[in-house]
Design brief:
The chain has six helices and seven strands. It has 224 residues and is of the alpha/beta class. The chain binds NADP nicotinamide-adenine-dinucleotide phosphate (NAP).
């Protein structure tokens, strides 16, 4: 069966993705800052420690997986940062922290696991972005830090898609829908299981013709 690595697997959408891929029989490498917090059982689930903002943590994971093919990498770990982002109230330390997790983290992890992905059959990298990272759709105020980090990761992944296209890679960014997690809040429209189901179907069907594209959970293409 194929293999998938999920960052930020301790809760929310990451946890849901681990459960869904494991149910389909995939080998799932579930990564979290506190791997003991991953409360899912299953013969195909392996737990690893990973803080995507910590280069040594990423390097340790890469060493642990050295020589092991990986079909799909899912860059899921993310933070929203402070809700208050009006001009005059921007917290630049918090801004840097959001960029470290949401933008640099996925690039760092993709780079570190490139040899594993090259050795895999699917050669697929999926990054959980957001519709809030669409510059075209950003017409209302708010969420400046988060939006900037997701727009930046969109560009990073589009660049990586172009760089790896000739090798048959499929590198995409996806919006998971508005999901009831700690980040999405209780009023969101989708449960974690619903979002994970949509994402599983989307990711399982990805082929190189999708390389460099931005999808919503339901398969619609989103404007950059
Ligand atoms: N929920 C939504 O409606 C929504 C909408 C659009 C996009 N997204 C995106 O979907 C992804 C998952 O969101 P979510 O709603 O599931 O968020 P969540 O419930 O807040 O969970 C975030 C996950 O990321 C992990 N994480 C944060 N910083 C990390 C780091 N430095 N290293 C490793 N893991 C880290 C957290 O681990 P800890 O438990 O250790 O903190 C947690 O497992 C994010 O990229 C988010 O931007 C979500």
């Amino acid at each position: 069966m194929p293999s998938v690595l999920v960052s930020g697997a301790s809760r929310g959408i990451g946890r849901g993705l681990v459960a869904r891929f494991a149910r389909a029989g995939w080998t799932v490498l579930a990564c979290a800052r506190e791997p003991g917090a991953i409360d899912l059982e299953g013969s195909g689930i392996e737990r690893f420690a990973l803080d995507v903002t910590d280069p040594e943590s990423v390097a340790r994971l890469a060493r642990a997986l050295s020589g092991r093919p990986l079909d799909v990498l899912i860059n899921n770990a993310g933070v929203y940062g402070p809700r208050e982002t009006r001009l005059g109230a921007i917290d630049y330390d918090a801004f840097r922290a959001v960029l470290e997790t949401n933008t640099l983290g996925p690039v760092r992890l993709t780079e570190a696991l490139l040899a594993n992905l090259r050795a895999g059959e699917r050669k697929t990298v999926v990054t959980l972005s957001s519709i809030m990272g669409s510059i075209a759709l950003a017409t209302s105020p708010g969420g400046l830090l988060y939006r900037t980090s997701k727009a930046a990761v969109n560009m990073a992944m589009r660049s990586i898609a172009a760089e790896l296209a000739a090798e048959g890679f499929t590198v995409v960014v996806v919006h998971p829908g508005w999901v009831r997690t700690d980040m999405g809040g209780p009023g969101a429209t989708l449960s974690v299981a619903e979002s994970a189901e949509h994402l599983f179907r989307l990711i399982d069907r990805l082929r190189p013709s999708a390389n460099g594209r931005f999808f919503a959970h339901d398969g619609r293409e989103l404007p950059w």
